[in-house]
């Protein structure tokens, strides 16, 4: 039979599951156990201090809301932490959750409470009771330019964003449309621009809003007969940032009101910043008159970051979270996760959580296991780059040499070995492998594979190199 605390916690988990990604759920919530429920205080056991801190830092708002929903207004949560490196680890100690937490309202993805007292506010973004109209910009301070690593993948978008931030409404980039695939940094960059504008032009009224929220607010305003207020509120802004405008597709009425707001802002020299997962030409279900306006300013795209940028992003993230990882582990992550930055950060965080959960040091082995377990659905095939790196490390050669055309004997052999593993372990074509390894053609790669096979049969030492390398490269 389920105990009452288990039942409550299971209901909480069901809500949490709907509000976080599967990976975050597995990482942070699966390992939690509920222990008791007394006087509306639910106690949950978390595996380490690190878990506790992470939950407090990143999930406090969600946890609070969930507890409130399940246990009513008096509901409280307490943690019991299994202490690390402690012989009596079965004797957990308890920390009470602070009632107000500095980060409680930081996560912009969680809707903020809008009913303040029993006053009804016409627009949820306006803080009532202040003389001068004061709009909460809804910006997330951690999404700053400072935290936004520059790379070839984002140079144009970033510098256009910077230009816009310095002279909002005063450049040719109006609107500025940032587009690119999921997890590539559109939302972050959009916030950075807003934050920078608030820093340099504190009097400007800036608002960040997702297209979904905009659409919902509009629908509410229709229901409450306050569409004029809605429109006036948006027309009064100096800078309007709308995230993920592709969601306007098919919503004709919303597009219509947005069209009017857009025109008003543009005509009065106000800045508009938009993000989208595709360029205007590919946005289906969005009216032509809007699309043509999207193209008035500048459309800048975000690409998948290259290896150096991925490493730099990981380092920045670790620095800001105050965590440290061995260099080879960071590199391993950056080499293996090439899809997008959100996946990359997710893997980093899961790894730290795993290490903390199992009280193990973060090693390359753990990283390999974790990637296998948690990041299954991303393209985590070994990359040619990674193979080259491992081979070069093994023979103590600079990777540039391997990629060059040099015919030095030791380089030639390492290059052949890299080609051999690339053929074995990736789905790349012979031509592609050759292109990665010193611009060789497919025949050279084929020849390399034969040579390696022959040498393995005849040369014991060589064979042991290959076995060693195979272990180092393969993800398991
Ligand atoms: P998108 O909106 O394109 O789906 P996000 O802006 O949400 O992507 O970015 C996903 C994650 O990657 C965020 O945590 C963000 O901080 C991080 N990120 C993206 N680009 C960069 C970058 N250039 N430097 C540092 N972090 C980045
Ligand atoms: Mg986004």
- Fraction in helix: 40-55%
Biggest β-sheet strands, sense, barrel: 5 strands, parallel
| Topology pattern, helix = H, strand = E | HHEEHHEEHEHEHHEHEHEHHHHHHHHHH
Total E-strand runs: 9
Mean pLDDT reading: 85
Any guess at the CATH architecture of the largest domain? 3-Layer(aba) Sandwich
Keywords:
alpha/beta, Rossmann fold, four-stranded mixed beta sheet, Helicase, Ruva Protein, domain 3, binds magnesium ion, 4 domains, 51% helix, binds adenosine-5'-diphosphate, GMP Synthetase, Chain A, domain 3, 476 residues
How would you explain this protein's 3D organization?
- With 476 residues, the protein is α/β, with parallel strands linked by helices.
- The protein has 4 domains: 4-101, DnaA, N-terminal domain (GMP Synthetase, Chain A, domain 3, 2-Layer Sandwich), CATH 3.30.300; 136-302, 3-Layer(aba) Sandwich (Rossmann fold), CATH 3.40.50.300; 307-379, Helicase, Ruva Protein, domain 3, CATH 1.10.8.60; 384-473, Chromosomal Replication Initiator Protein Dnaa, Chain: A (Orthogonal Bundle), CATH 1.10.1750.10.
- Helix content is 51%, strand content 10%.
- It has 20 helices and 9 strands.
- The chain has helices at 4-19, 22-29, 49-58, 60-71, 155-166, 186-200, 211-223, 227-235, 252-267, 288-294, 307-321, 327-336, 341-358, 364-374, 384-395, 399-403, 409-425, 430-436, 442-458, 460-473; strands at residues 33-38, 41-46, 76-81, 93-96, 176-180, 206-210, 239-243, 271-276, 298-302.
- The chain has a 5-stranded parallel sheet, sandwiched between helices.
- The longest helix is centred in the last third of the chain and has 18 residues, at 341-358.
- The structure holds adenosine-5'-diphosphate and magnesium ion.
- Magnesium ion is lined by residues 186-187, 243-244.
